[in-house]
Structure formats: structure tokens, C-alpha cells
Amino acid sequence: MKYLDEYRDRRAAQRYAKLLAALTTKPWTVMEICGGQTHSIMRFGIDRLLPPGLQLVHGPGCPVCVTPLELIDRAIAISRRPETVFCSFGDMLRVPGSRSSLLEARAQGADIRVVYSPLDAVELARRLPARQVVFFAVGFETTAPMTAMAARRARDLGLKNFSLLTAHVLVPPAMAAILSAPANRVQGFLAAGHVCTVAGFSDYEPLARRYRVPIVVTGFEPLDILQGLCMLTRQLERGLCEVQNQYGRSARAAGNQAALAVLREVFEPCRRQWRGIGPIESSGLRLTPPYADLDAEKRFGVQEIAAQEPRECLAGEILQGLRKPHECPAFGTLCTPERPLGAPMVSSEGACAAYHRYRGAEANRK
Q: Higher confidence at residue 68 or residue 17?
């Protein structure tokens, strides 16, 4: 199909690989933020095309992976209440909490339903006035406007039985946290093109200046990533720290103003816990005062539920680019997609899942 072949041309990929080899004269460590990019890199073997001096590490760009353990436990607690219908995207169901998962809770009788849009949950609330319908709102700036639209729709319909368990997070504060960490080794970023399509990338410019790192907004197909790496390497070699846009067919600096307007109406920034990483200031979204009555944590009184990460899981170090999945002693043994210790092994965008799926036996030998 042309729309895929155009960005997966083998000869063009080889040309980009040769250009990267010619550009790279020093060792560089760069991070792709998005888990979708990580999966493309592993699936198409992009990392094997890179010159020895250019190392890719994988970032926290998987919203399922960074949803804190305690929030999974709160979701399970809410779902077990007999009056609730708990709605979620499918990739959250197998994410392990401290003792179980939403999938296990459903098997034990909880009314947990997979939806394809937050508006599906609003419609359920309209049709089931005697039940409390809760939507598990997980995602980056890409999906947060859809949740905001659902909140506005529920308010317009006057629904009193709809609420949100909110776990939305923002990318730029996470990048700042990585760059501020004492052990940081990231020298440049491939930013997530779909996030920037919604939120724009003007907020990345202060990061580039403050931390002296180049940032290239990049797509998800093989040629997108290779071209983004060429743009990034050229900046690194020249000592530049600019924000560039490889994903010009979709992303603009100002983003989608209509989506951002409804996002600002319903949500405001807040301090948020990131799974395996810890709290990051202004990295999450909470409901604004006019929508505060939709807060499921307060409605069901689960704010005090806390949890500890399993010590065997190195997801936090992997999400910060400090280690790669196969460097975790539990990878492929104690931690598998069937019995995961952490979310990166079960999420469709998780780095551990990518390594296990595309490099399984090979990664286990390393």
C-alpha cells in the first residue's frame, strides 16, 4: 500500500543509514520519547542500521507504563463496587497492580468494560442511570482532549452518574525531569509526533535552551525515525540545540487550538506520580473546579490507597533511559507478557514488550 510503502522503502532507509554513518563522528546518546517509536525501531531493526557511536535509549512515552501502581489499585477498588460500571481502554486491563489486575477483577465478577472512546462511557451512563459509570482516563496530550470532550458532554447532559479516574500526564515536564536527573545521559530527543500534533511543540523550545539539547519532532514509520535521527545528529555534531519538526505532515508548533481550548476548560496541570520514576511537578492533569464533581477518586473515597513497586522490576530505570529491557535480571524469566512484573511488559507501547516480541530469545542471551 502506497501510504505505508512511502515511509518503509528499504533503499531509502539504507541511504539514511549511510548518511547517519557519515554524520556521526562522536558518541551520542539520544532518546525516543514515544513507545510507538520504540516498537517501530525494534520491529524494523532500525537500531541495527545505526553507526556504533549513536546509541538509542527508550523513554517514558507509554502512558500505560507510567500510570502509578497506586492508581491501578484504586481503579480495581472502584471496579469491585457493585454499583459501578468501570470503563477502560483495553490495554489497561492486564497492567498489574500490587496484588491483581483489572482483568482479574473482571474474571471475579466486576463489571469492567472495554470502550474505544470516552464518549462510549458517557453513553453508557446515559443508558444506565441507576449505575455509576467510571472512565479510566489514561494517556498523554494526544488523548486528553477526548476525555475533556466526554466531561463536557456529561455535564451538558446533566449526568450525575458519570465520573473520571484521571491519569493523564504531560510530556515536557517528564523530559525536564530526565534531563535534571544526576544520572542523565540523554543528549538529544526524538519527540512524539502525535503528541505534538495536538499540543504543538512551542513548549519544547525552553527545554532545548535550558538544557542545551536538540529536539526533533518525529513520526513513527522507519523513514520518519531515520530522518529524525539524521536531523538530530546533525545538530549534535554542530553543537546546536534547536527544536526541529520532521513530522511536518501532521505537527505544527501551535498544535490543535480547538483541542487545547477544551483541554484547558476541563483540566489544569498538577503534580503527578509516574510509575517507577516518582512525582514530577506540573506533569499531570486534574479536573478544574467547574468539573471537580466528576473526580472518581473523591467520589468513591479511594485517595488514600497506596502501593509499593516490586523491587525486582527495573521499569523506572528503563523508562528513564538508564537501562535497556534485556539488562533487567527478571526480563523473560520472572517477567513475561503472560506474567508481567511491570507495565512495560504488557503495554502495546512498552519497551519491554517490544524487546520480548521482536528480540525475545536474542535479548535473553545478552
A: 17
What is d(CA 349, CA 340) in angstroms, rounded to the nearest whole number?
14
Q: How many CA atoms lie within 13 A of 107 on its CB side?
A: 7
- pLDDT higher than 80, residue 176: yes
Does residue 291 sit within a domain?
A: yes
How far does Cα 31 stand from its chain's mean position?
14
Per-residue pLDDT band at 364 (split at 50, 70, 90): low
In a domain, 41, yes or no: no
Q: What's the CATH number where 147 sits?
A: 3.40.50.11740
316 with 353: CB under 8 angstroms? no
pLDDT in tens, 287-312: 999 999 999 999 999 999 988 877 77
Taking the C-alpha atoms of residue 35 and residue 190, their distance in angstroms, rounded to an integer, is 11
Range of the domain at 285: 66-169+255-299
**Whole-number Å distance between alpha carbons of 61 and 348:** 12
Cα 230 to Cα 26, 89, 249, 294, 352: the distances in Å are: 14, 35, 18, 45, 26
Q: What is the pLDDT of residues 302-342, one digit of tens each?
A: 999 988 877 778 888 888 888 899 899 989 988 898 888 88
d(CA 117, CA 137): 10
221 belongs to a structural domain = no
